[in-house]
Design a protein that fits this description.
Elements lengths: L1 H18 L3 E6 L5 E3 L3 E9 L5 E7 L5 E7 L4 E5 L7 E9 L7 E3 L3 E4 L6 E6 L6 E3 L5 E8 L4 E8 L5 E9 L5 E3 L8 E9 L2 E4 L3 E4 L5 E6 L5 E3 L3 E9 L4 E8 L2 E11 L4 E5 L13 E10 L5 E3 L4 E4 L3 E6 L5 E3 L3 E9 L5 E8 L7 E9 L4 E5 L13 E14 L2 E6 L3 E5 L1
Parallel strand pairs: 2-9, 11-18, 20-27, 29-36
Antiparallel strand pairs: 1-3, 3-6, 4-5, 4-7, 7-8, 7-9, 10-12, 12-15, 13-14, 13-16, 16-17, 16-18, 19-21, 21-24, 22-23, 22-25, 25-26, 25-27, 28-30, 30-33, 31-32, 31-34, 34-35, 34-36
Length: 427
């Protein structure tokens, strides 16, 4: 019997030593707290020597425990939204180990759960379309809302979505003063915003919308804007900048300040460009365009916006060169004097290179006859084979595959022409 009592006492001493230092202390709610049904609060605690998950109970002043959370991490905090099913009354919060073996718990002081008056609400109805855009300094936007459970004034602000910065719309505005017409001032930076309407802790927010800086409607011709040289038969791009414009534009070619040709009766303004093919000739009744007094006019169809080239531009004939002599089958003897001839247009101020070559590629291949010859001279006198010297000297004989080419180049273009095969007699 004594031995049994001794074992029981030893077990109790060991268990007591094991439990010693294992504590849970509830730090919120505190005595006197009054928490409303439907509100949200943080239940907090500290623990020592406890391992594993915890459960949270609601202990009425009289009655059985109610479950708040069956299992939660022992991290010292749990957010509790008080369910409508909790009857008003006086309670304690109990935080305890999930297991009863051993059972470690801590109770809060008594606090009150009340059926408080319904909280007020604010619902922002406009602007509500997420993804919409407002233009700063343009048409005012309508701010509209409904409210419940509040009276007096509300505060209205623009809330920047990226920085959370607030821009004041109205510090004090009647709660029932909806809608409000508001012009966004220049002080509001472009970005994404929400309208925030608040009265104390009661807050309503709109959907997210963009605010853009106002850009006045305008139409500005970019090219050709004066000083350019365009060539007949080529494609040219007429470019312009348009801001806050819709609809179409009319594009005209002016000559001497009056309309010479309508290039486009109606072209969509927001493309920003129009491709125009300058007319090559007057065949078929089409106007022949050459000169230095041209401008482009572009205007909206309602005539509210118009721009014209700042200065005149030039239209020139398409640069070209065509070799005329030697003709096919001609025979040119060494040391004879012959005239190489060609036609040219649009090459004023340009020079050409005249080249002799043999289509067989041997024995001379390619040799220049002359360089820097004015293109518009259209002729060059050559003493046949005067270029002949050194290791490139041709052997005497008949060369029936001779060809003369003429070449000129400019920025982004190249013109060339070649004769038909003719014969050179080398003595």
């Amino acid at each position: 019997m004594k031995k049994t009592l001794l074992i029981a006492a030893l077990a109790a001493w060991i268990m007591g030593g094991f439990l010693w230092g294992q504590t849970i202390t509830v730090t919120a709610p505190v005595a006197g707290d009054d928490w409303c049904v439907g509100s949200t609060h943080a239940i907090t605690w500290t623990s020592s020597g406890v391992t594993g998950a915890l459960s949270i109970k609601l202990r009425p002043e009289a009655g059985t425990l109610l479950n708040i959370k069956s299992s939660t991490a022992d991290d010292g905090s749990f957010t509790w939204s008080i369910d409508d099913a909790i009857p008003p009354g006086r309670y304690r919060v109990r935080v305890r180990t999930v297991s009863d073996d051993p059972l470690i718990y801590g109770d809060s002081p008594l606090f009150t759960v009340s059926a408080c008056a319904p909280a007020g609400s604010i619902t922002v109805n406009s602007p509500m379309e997420t993804g919409a855009y407002m233009v700063r300094g343009a048409t005012p936007m309508a701010i509209a809302w409904t409210s419940s459970g509040i009276t007096g004034d509300v505060r209205i602000e623009l809330e920047n979505n990226d920085t959370a910065a607030l821009f004041l719309v109205a510090a004090s505005h009647p709660y029932n003063g909806s809608p409000l017409s508001y012009s966004i001032p220049d002080g509001v930076s472009p970005g994404t915003y929400r309208v925030k309407i608040s009265q104390g802790t009661v807050v309503g927010r709109s959907g997210r919308f963009g605010i853009l800086a106002y850009v006045a409607p305008s139409l500005s011709l970019v090219s050709p804007n004066g000083g350019e040289t365009l060539y007949q038969g080529r494609y040219h791009t007429i470019e312009w900048d348009a801001h806050n414009l819709d609809g179409n534009v009319r594009i005209e070619l002016l000559r001497g300040g009056v309309v010479y040709q309508v290039l486009a009766e109606s072209h969509f303004v927001n493309t920003g460009f129009f491709t125009w093919r300058n007319i090559l000739s007057s065949s078929g009744g089409v106007k022949y365009m050459l000169g230095s007094d041209f401008k482009i006019s572009i205007r909206t169809l309602d005539r509210r916006f118009r721009d014209v080239s700042d200065a005149s531009f030039t239209i020139q004939a398409q640069p070209g060169v065509w070799l005329v002599k030697p003709a096919a089958g001609e025979v040119w003897e060494e040391d004879s004097t012959r005239e190489i001839r060609w036609n040219a247009q649009g090459l004023e101020g340009r020079t050409v290179i005249i080249i002799l070559k043999f289509t067989s590629g041997s024995p001379l291949n390619i040799r220049p006859i002359a360089e820097g010859v004015p293109a518009m001279d259209k002729r060059y006198t050559w003493k046949v084979m005067d270029l002949d010297s050194g290791p490139y000297n041709l052997r005497p004989g008949t060369y029936s595959d001779a060809v003369i080419s003429i070449v000129t180049e400019g920025s982004g273009w190249r013109c060339s022409s070649a004769s038909k095969e003719f014969t050179i007699l080398k003595r």
